[in-house]
């Protein structure tokens, strides 16, 4: 039986994945070597060091989980929480809600601080709950992919520290697209994904844990409920002179991430942030001329994930299908309460290019009349 595989070349301008640099794809085709091979261990150490640079941290426990970012979220929560603990979750979109789901599955007590979708969390509400409930953990999304909102973190991070709570941040869409300062913002645990602004294939999720967080994990009264995601076990593979077998790492994916990180650092973080912002401005100007409105106020708007209201009379699914099938451009639909009301246009990493933006705008001019 003959099996055909025909993969079209798309311009990926949705919420992820983003397009990959040819160097990253070439890295995946390198010869396989063992996951405990000395040459691979060098790649692991270099990957950790580059991730520290991106997260702006000195944390030794910084590495990619061998799974997508949803697993990294679970990894952080199941390691930091035990049954009976209290966690405060800031919710203003889909991914804050997912944090809540993980907290409840850990047997922890959930406290929510909510804001309307597309609006930032109020630090005063967080402080009120810190005073009343004394949570062990405060969780928040830095770049909410469902709404396009950039959440300020400094004040909430300071509050968590002042009230002796651990601070966990979702940086899935923010890392390498906007500034992330783990140490300066007093973040104890953070996770991201490879398929967004890093522009590597999906399937790995960088994490970092502070020494404060690691002490809490090491002094747990109960075992971490996930064997695979137990940081105590993963530490023995990713750290130290003698690496202990934990699982067979996805060697080719780590080759790809290693190359993607090199590309980020060759461009320079500040240059990369500037490029994302400039391309956002180009997209914004073009969309507003076509009658689009942004969901998020400019002060809290992400440059790399643009949520816009679908104009009245425009068929959501039809236009997205036409963009994909006639122009090879992918954009994202709305999630949750924004389903059918919002498009999410990604300008992440390799997909943040003026030529792609111009192609999208020309296509929309033809499809929306």
Q: Can you describe what's shown?
A:
The protein is of the alpha/beta class. 40% of the residues lie in helices and 15% in strands. It has 12 helices and 15 strands. It is globular.
Give a quick summary of the entry:
The chain has 369 residues and is α/β, with parallel strands linked by helices. The chain has helices at residues 22-28, 38-55, 69-80, 94-105, 123-133, 154-162, 211-218, 231-238, 251-267, 269-289, 316-327, 354-367; strands at residues 11-12, 62-65, 86-91, 109-114, 137-141, 143-144, 149-150, 166-170, 189-191, 205-209, 293-294, 305-309, 329-330, 332-333, 342-346. The strands form four sheets. Strands 2-10-9-8-5-3-4 form a seven-stranded mixed sheet, sandwiched between helices. A four-stranded antiparallel sheet has the order 11-12-15-14, covered by helices on one side. It has a two-stranded parallel sheet with strand order 1-13.
Which H/E pattern describes the elements?
A: EHHEHEHEHEEEHEEEHHHHEEHEEEH
The overall strand count is 15
Q: Which CATH architecture of the largest domain?
A: 3-Layer(aba) Sandwich
The proportion of residues forming helix, as a percent range, comes to 40-55%
What value does the Rg take, in angstroms? 21 Å
Distance between the termini: 46 Å
CATH level-1 class of the largest domain = Alpha Beta
| Tally of individual helices | 12
Low-confidence stretches: none
Question: Any chance you could write out the topology, listing elements then pairs?
Answer:
Elements: E1 11-12, H1 22-28, H2 38-55, E2 62-65, H3 69-80, E3 86-91, H4 94-105, E4 109-114, H5 123-133, E5 137-141, E6 143-144, E7 149-150, H6 154-162, E8 166-170, E9 189-191, E10 205-209, H7 211-218, H8 231-238, H9 251-267, H10 269-289, E11 293-294, E12 305-309, H11 316-327, E13 329-330, E14 332-333, E15 342-346, H12 354-367
Parallel strand pairs: 1-13, 3-4, 3-5, 5-8, 8-9
Antiparallel strand pairs: 2-10, 6-7, 9-10, 11-12, 12-15, 14-15
Helix pairs in contact: 1-9, 2-9, 5-6, 10-12, 11-12
């Amino acid at each position: 039986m003959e099996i055909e595989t025909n993969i079209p070349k798309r311009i990926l301008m949705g919420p992820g994945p983003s397009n990959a640099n040819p160097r990253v794809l070439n890295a995946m085709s390198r010869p396989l070597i063992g996951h405990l091979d000395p040459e691979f261990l060098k790649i692991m150490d270099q990957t950790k060091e580059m991730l520290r640079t991106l997260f702006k941290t000195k944390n030794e426990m910084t590495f990619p989980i061998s799974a997508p970012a949803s697993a990294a979220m679970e990894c952080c929560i199941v390691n930091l929480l035990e049954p009976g603990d209290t966690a405060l979750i800031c919710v203003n979109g889909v991914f804050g809600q997912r944090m809540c789901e993980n907290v409840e599955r850990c047997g922890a007590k959930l406290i929510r601080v909510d804001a309307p979708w597309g609006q930032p969390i109020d630090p005063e509400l967080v402080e009120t709950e810190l005073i009343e409930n004394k949570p062990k953990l405060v969780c928040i999304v830095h770049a909410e992919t469902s709404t396009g909102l950039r959440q300020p973190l400094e004040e909430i991070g300071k509050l968590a520290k002042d009230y002796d709570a651990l601070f966990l941040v979702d940086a899935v869409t923010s890392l390498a697209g906007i500034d992330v300062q783990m140490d300066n913002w007093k973040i104890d645990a953070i996770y991201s994904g490879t398929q967004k602004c890093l522009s590597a294939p999906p399937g790995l999720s960088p994490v970092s844990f502070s020494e404060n967080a690691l002490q809490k994990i090491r002094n747990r009264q109960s075992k971490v409920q996930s064997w695979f995601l137990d940081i105590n076990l993963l530490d023995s593979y990713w750290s130290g002179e003698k690496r202990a077998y934990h699982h067979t790492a996805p060697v080719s994916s780590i080759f790809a991430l290693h190359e993607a990180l090199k590309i980020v650092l060759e461009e320079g973080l500040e240059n990369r942030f500037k490029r994302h912002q400039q391309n956002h401005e180009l997209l914004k100007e073009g969309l507003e001329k076509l009658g689009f409105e942004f969901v998020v106020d400019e002060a809290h708007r992400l440059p790399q994930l643009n949520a816009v209201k679908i104009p009245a009379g425009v068929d959501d699914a039809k236009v997205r299908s036409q963009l994909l099938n006639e122009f090879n451009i992918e954009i994202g639909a709305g999630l949750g309460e924004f389903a059918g009301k919002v498009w999410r246009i990604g300008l992440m990493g390799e997909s943040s290019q003026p030529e792609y933006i111009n192609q999208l705008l020309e296509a929309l001019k033809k499809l929306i009349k």
